[in-house]
Every structure is written in C-alpha cells, then in structure tokens.
User: Fold this.
Amino acid sequence: MIELESVSKTYTVGKENVHVLNDVSLTISQGEFVAIMGPSGSGKSTLMNIVGCLDKPSAGSYFLGGENVSGYKDAELARVRNQSIGFVFQQFHLLPRLSALKNVELPMIYAGIKKEERMERARKALEKVALADRMDHLPNALSGGQKQRVAIARAIVNSPKLILADEPTGALDTKTSTSIMELFRELNEEGTTLIVVTHEPEVAEYAERTILVRDGVVLHGDARARREKL
Amino acid sequence: MNVIENLRMALGSLMAHKMRSILTMLGIIIGVGAVIIVVAIGQGGEAMLKEQFSGAGNTVELLFQPPEEEMEANPNLLSQAPFKQEDIRALEGIQGVKKVVATSSEFSSARFREKTVDASVTGMNNGYLEVNGLKVKKGRNFSSSDFLSGRRVGLISHSAKEELFEGRSPVGEIIRIANQPVEVIGVLEKPSGLFAFGSVEVYLPSQTWRSVYGKSEYSQVALQADSADELKAVGEEAAKLLNNMHGTKESYQVINIEEITEGIGQVTRIMTMIIGSIAGISLFVGGIGVMNIMLVSVTERTREIGIRMALGATRGQVMTQFLIESITLTLVGGIIGIFSGWGIASLVSAFAGWPSLVSWQVVVGGLLFSMIIGIIFGLLPANKASKLDPIDSLRYE
Ligand SMILES: Nc1ncnc2c1ncn2[C@@H]1O[C@H](COP(=O)(O)OP(=O)(O)O)[C@@H](O)[C@H]1O
Ligand SMILES: [Mg+2]
Assistant:
C-alpha cells in the first residue's frame, strides 16, 4: 500500500543544501507491522512525515494505496491525513484545553461528521484503549501512558488504513510501553498497517520487519528483507 | 466543518484567556458603546424636536407677511384681515389638501367668579385639535353643531384649569372671556415633553370667537396635506392662490415646518458625525488591538495549529477557525458595547429628561460593524496561521 520510489528530501539551510533523505525506495504492504530504527538525525521522522503526507518529497514519487500523492495539493493531502492516516507522536500532541473525549472528536470534526455520531465514535475509541472512565479529563490530569492512549484513540477514530507512530514509547516507562505496544499489536491484527519509529529493540520486536535508516539512506526497504528475517 | 463547530472552538479559546479577551474587547466595547450612546441620544432628541415642532400631521403654515415694496404700493395692506372666510373655502378646494386649520387668537382676560387670569384665546375650526395633537381629557370635545351654530362653549388647557378652578371641576361652569360668558365643556390633556410649556389657553369654535371679539378674520392658517410628499406643492399652490385672490405678489408665504425640523435634524446629524468619527477612531484602535492579540494567539498556538493540520484540518479550515475567533471576539465586544451603550443612554435620558432612541437599525448596524472589524483585523493573523508549515508547527515549543 506504500510505495516510495527514489524519494529524496533536501532542506536548504542558508546557502547549503542538506540532503536528509537520499534516493529512498520503500515498499510496505497492507496490514504490515513495520519498525523503523536508526540513529538520531538519520532521517526517520522526515521519512515518516513524507509517508504521513505532512511533507512532500523534493524528488521521487510516493504512491499511497495506488495513488500518486506526491502530486497532491495541500487540501487533498489534508484529506488523506484525515481519512487514511492516524498519527501517534512521542510528545502525545493532545490539545491541552480539550478533554480526552474532545481531543478524540477532533479528526471527526474535520471529517464533517455530525455531533451525535462523533460523541458515540469517540466514546467507543476511548473504550477500546481502556479509558472509558477518563473521558472528561483534561490531558494534564492523565498519566503519560493514558495520554498516549488518548492519542491512539484519536488516531484510530476515523478508521484509517495506516497508523504512523514516531517514537510512541519514547517518553514512557517500560511497563507502559509494553501495554501501548500490545494495543498496537491488537490494531495490527484487526488489519491496520502500522509503522513505528523506535530506538528500543524490545519495541521493534513487535514488528514483522525492521527497516534501518542511516544518514538518509534506507536499508532493507523492500519486502525481501522481511522474508530474510523470517 | 460548520460555523457552529467553529464558534464553539472560538468561545472555548476566548474563555481560556478571559482577562486577555475582555481587555482586548474593551476597545470595541467602548467604540460600539459610544456609537450607540451618541446615535440613541441624537435620534431621540431629533424625534422629540420633530414631534414638538410639527405636531402630529403633515402641516404647513401660511403666513401673511407683505414685503417692503408691496406695503409701499398698498399702505392699507396691513389693516386688512389676512385670512377671510372665503379664503379658507378656496384653500379647502385645492387638490391634495386634507384639512385647513384656521385660527384666530387674542390675548385677553378670562374670569371665573373672583379669579382672573390672562389667557390666549384661540378660535379655531374643526380639525385644529387633531392636527396639533391635542386631546380632551375631561368633559367632551366640540361637536360639529358647536362649530356651525357658534354656541358659547369652550375648552380650556390644563394650566387654565389649575389657575382658574384650583382643583374644582370646571366642566359645566361658566367663565367670562373678555367679559362674555362661555361654558367650559372640557379640559385638554396636559402637554408632555421638554419644551412644552403649560400655558393658559382657551379654545373656542371660530364662530364663537368671532362673536366674542366682534372680528371676522383668521390670523393663522395651516394646511394639512394628504401626504408628506405633497406638502411642498400644496403649500406653494395655496400661497399662489391667496396672492391671486388678494392682488398681491409675495405677501402670502409658506413656512414649511418640515424644513425647520430638517434644519434641526441637520444639527443633530453633524453632532452625531463628529462624535461618531471619534467613536470610529476608537473602534479602529480597538481593531488593531484585536489584530495584535490574534497574532500573539497564533504564535502561542503554533503547536495546536500543527496538531490540527496533522489531524486533517485544511489551510482553509485553520484560516476560518482564527477568523471566526476574531469575529467572535469583536462580536461579543459589540454586544456588550450595545448593551452598555443602551444602558448609559437610558441613564442619561432619565437624568436629562432627553429621550433616547435605540432603533433596531442601530443595533443591527452595531453588530454588523463589529463583525466587519473582526473580519478586517482578523484576516492577517488568520492568514498567518493558515500559512504555517505543519511539521515546523508540531516541533514548535
Ligand atoms: N526543516 C529542516 N531544515 C533543515 N534541516 C532539517 C529540517 N528538518 C530536519 N532537518 C535535519 O534532517 C535530519 C534528519 O532529521 P529527522 O528526520 O528528524 O531525524 P530523526 O527523526 O531520525 O532523528 C537532521 O539532521 C535534521 O537536523
Ligand atoms: Mg525523530
């Protein structure tokens, strides 16, 4: 479902061009659970942002679900993010002034779903992440693990085909990390494609294959790597 | 995403910074409030003055005022009666004239038993009371037979009743006007309003007035037209007719009361404009304040904007969100301004005895205006928010 063909990303800092991604080709199929590992600054987040349609490649093309989204306009990309992709971040990125329920409601507001349906679906999503009793809490009143669960509920509420998690356990202790990864495993078993960036080998263990990124270059970017690992 | 959703979000974020929101609104509140006060008091005053000068109906007054040359040519002109019975009948025949109100007045003594006062005694025809907005409070009005037969009956003003009767009921009593007996059949309502003096007045049917004073002319004639639009044409037509009948050129003239009140309106309008422009400046300054706070808010909420974009908000939706937020800010300020302006205008009018008038047009205008300020001064911050890069925004601390 994800096909990157010779994707490069170059930033211009002052007069210098910084090549963050170099000729990256990558294929990920529907329903896969993939871990991305690599040293800090190697370009993992940049790769995730391109896959998540938050950023556009400087060169190369990106097909998501068979569509060439590298040519999409801003508004079309927003729609793809809203409908097809769920994001989970290391810093949770919840809106601090909104309750858990309201945070989970947000993607549905942008999808134009009616209030009653939003409430119902948000409740269901929070039940799924075992936070039924914390719906009206503000993010500040929640623990790190609970915040990340709210973020996961928010990521899945529009039933996206793809969930991208950039170091989702980076700010959590080991025990909490395990429960979050169990949740991801559950979602993957239900058919959602999952890509998780991580530094921790225990986290990468949950994935079916691991992609390595080093200095903007992707190693084992194709499905063959998976077969080798198995 | 609909407007209600946006409005909810906007109110939420304004409530999150209550103090800041209120301080920001202050410029708008003062500006809109000032506009409401000025317009309310201006319009109230204008309405009151108009009412007092023009009475109830669309009337023009005809004036006999011969110019210098005509008096030299005909020295007898002033000793003639200016308006005669046949003049009145001729005026009634003019197309578009609804009523001709002819009056004669004299200043003379009015006596009841031992008590004597000076009164202005007006002889008038049918229609005078109605056209001048006078109502009979006690007793009865003149009947048409009173006008036709010239019965010795009269109406007295509230002040005349107070001075002559001192609390007794005057209806049915006989008073003496210039030593002639007249039966009081009714008392008029006390006049209201700032400039209405309660003068001592006696009203008689024209016939009666003539037999009391032994004169047969009218001193004042006013015309009531079918409609306000015809007023000017009808007045000019009447003056021409009278000049023709009396062999004069410009001795008969028209005073258009509407024109006088128009002049008064002009004055209040100029006042309104001056103070209105001061209010406009304070609204402009208020608008700049809104823009400033919205820019601060966009910067503070950079991360929120990034999150919303990651969740699928389009640039248009982000723009709309901030635009609606600034409109909400100015609109709420406008609403508070309208109510406080209204309150202050009512207070002022209560103390000064000057009426205030808050018309729905002013309220709607105030609301629209504060919304427009919200749009104009919200555009720049909203545009800035929508142009943010989602990744940079997510990384913003
Ligand atoms: N907007 C940018 N402008 C310039 N350089 C950037 C920008 N974003 C990221 N980089 C650089 O790209 C490299 C990869 O960043 P990132 O993808 O965040 O790495 P990782 O997530 O693997 O730690 C880093 O060296 C970073 O400094
Ligand atoms: Mg990173």
Notes: The longest strand of chain B covers residues 97-112. Chain B has 14 helices and ten strands.
